[in-house]
Amino acid sequence: MAYIEKTYGLTTIPDTNVDVLPADQELTTDIPLDTTYIDLIHLKIGSLENLRLERFTQLESINLRDNLIVRLNALKHIDPQCKLRIKELDFYDNRIKHISSHVNEFTNLEILDLSFNNIKHIKHVENLTRLENLYFVQNKISKIENLDRMTLLQNLELGGNRVETIENLDSLVSLRQLWLGQNRISRLEGLARLRNLRVLSIQSNRIEKIEGLDGLTALEELYLSNNRISKLEGLDALVNLQVLDVTSNAIAKLEGLDALTQLTDFWCSYNQVADYSNIHDALQHATSLETVYFEGNPIQLKDPTMYRTKLRLCFGDSLQKIDALYVSTGRMVGQ
């Protein structure tokens, strides 16, 4: 620094307002020992052990999002009775590579968030039979496993991993939401037993065919964008479906939609749809349709001037939005 100052005639001005983060062990010093929650976010915490969480015997929730934690072994020091009291563990966005065996000791846990870490294997969660929400978004997981006893689980998020096969979900009879976007899944399978499922997202995978959905009669939202689908099929059982997203696939013809009478949203941008009469015929039974997306299809690209007018003629008065624009005013959604 001295050389640079001398060479270029610069002067170093000390910063008197440096924001110095306290050491890990100091972060919990002023927290009351009878607190029911620990909430330490974005503090560059590197050591769970230094927080000495065992001092807090009334905890119900631990939130340590957005830190630098690598290991969870220090959870072993928490009082056994306190472990039974805790309902939520949140380690979103840290540097965790392995799920510690001590996570399995929090048997009344209802929420576990380990998203945005470096986890490769789902393990040491077998005893968490009361879990309702489980988040593993953006890790390095390649296999769905060890969830068999989670019969109360309602929401499972595994987006942004390396999963190739949908498997080992049969026992998740309470599951209402399943998020599997941005994985390496090539086939829709292993879903037949999920009869309470309301939301299924398998965006940005390698799906070529819509199949294996016959048991999902309660499904309300299905997201299949950014796959390799060329034909709409296998949807007849989805009589309660309200939202269908097939954006960015290879669909040239709309078909197989007659059973979707409850549909309110149909998103089909960036496909190969070129026929307005086909759109009308395929969606004529969806009398409650409110929103459609067809931008990026030949019908829009070849005649953008008349595109919206012709689309409106395909549907009844229920239609409110076309491609994020209100039908009546042309205002953007949200304005």
From TrEMBL:
Species in which this protein is naturally found: Pichia membranifaciens NRRL Y-2026
* UniProt GO molecular function: protein phosphatase activator activity; protein serine/threonine phosphatase inhibitor activity
Question: Is Repeat there in the keyword field?
Answer: yes
Q: Which UniProt keywords apply?
A: Leucine-rich repeat, Repeat
* GO cellular-component term (any): nucleus
For this protein, the record's PROSITE patterns field holds:
LRR
Going by the entry's taxonomy, the superkingdom of the source organism is recorded as: Eukaryota
Name by which UniProt lists this protein: Protein phosphatase 1 regulatory subunit 7
- List, alphabetically, the PANTHER family matched: LEUCINE-RICH REPEAT AND IQ DOMAIN-CONTAINING PROTEIN 1-RELATED, LEUCINE-RICH REPEAT-CONTAINING PROTEIN 9
Q: Pfam families from the xrefs? A: LRR_4 (PF12799), LRR_6 (PF13516)
For this protein, the record's SUPFAM superfamilies field holds:
L domain-like
A biological process from GO: maintenance of protein location in nucleus
